[in-house]
Design brief:
Chain lengths: 92, 163
């Protein structure tokens, strides 16, 4: 078992075009490190230099937006499904 | 200069949504087969901010939308929203989000302005501004909007579902 991660279209340049990839880790941060070791450059797109989740990116563990569950510290486990999406917002 | 080709029914549906939600900003997507430039399925979204100056897809709605598109092998060909007091041009906030690291630069951003015409007046010149842009790394380029009579020749008609 592993954690399945769904990758948005533009970030598939890092995953050889794959829509989903698999990774492991106990927290979202560890999972992203693991993914980055196999798909170089992915971490830079998701995490800022200050080590925070990028504000224009939404990450969900199963159905939960990680902003409400501890952000990068959100626990993850085998069998979870993680989804990365672009936040859609704006204003005049 | 790029071009957005959009069918009349979808164009009208976007404009109608903007009018209906005025003075709040309206927002939504037009999905199409992944990898194509064909905006075929109109999906109005709720503006979670319910604001005249800001729009935001609710986080849970966004996940549901993308799951649905994924099941249909679609992507958002168009992301649209309205400005209700300013011109139909991307704001700094719009550009910031559209340049985010997970935002696809192949998206067409449609901006509609209802600043002059909230409710339909039926008078001449009662038009809602409808413009389209590409936004790549903070750079905005406007593109032509070409209205075609139908994208759906040989397909079932677009379903228009308001939340």
């Amino acid at each position: 078992m592993a954690i399945e991660v769904r990758i948005p279209t533009i970030l598939r340049t890092h995953t050889g075009g794959n829509k989903t990839v698999e990774g492991s880790g106990d927290t979202l941060a560890a999972l992203i490190d693991d993914l980055d070791s196999k798909h170089s450059g992915l971490k830079n797109r998701l995490v800022t230099e200050e080590g925070k989740l990028h504000r224009f990116v939404n990450v969900y563990v199963n159905d939960e937006d990680v902003r409400f569950t501890g952000a990068l510290d959100t626990p993850v486990k085998d069998g979870d499904s993680v989804t990365v999406l672009p936040a859609v917002a704006g204003g005049c | 200069m790029g071009v957005l080709r959009i069918d009349r029914a979808t164009y009208d549906a976007v404009v109608a949504h903007a009018r209906k939600d005025h003075p709040d900003e309206a927002c939504g997507v037009v999905a199409g087969p992944e990898g194509t430039e064909r905006p075929e399925r109109f999906v109005p979204m709720l503006n979670a901010a319910r604001s005249p100056t800001f729009y935001e897809f609710d986080s849970a709605d966004l996940l549901a939308l993308y799951r649905d598109m994924d099941d249909r092998d679609e992507w958002p060909v168009v992301v649209y929203h309205s400005h209700t007091a300013t011109e139909a041009y991307p704001s700094r906030t719009d550009i910031g989000y559209a340049s985010g690291p997970a935002a696809d630069p192949r998206t067409h951003y449609v901006l509609v302005s209802t600043r002059h015409h909230g409710p339909r007046t039926g008078l001449a010149g009662d038009d809602v501004e409808f413009r389209s842009y590409r936004i790549v790394d903070g750079e905005v380029s406007e593109e032509e909007v070409e209205i075609v009579e139908s994208y759906l020749f040989g397909h079932s008609p677009t379903t228009v579902v308001y939340d």
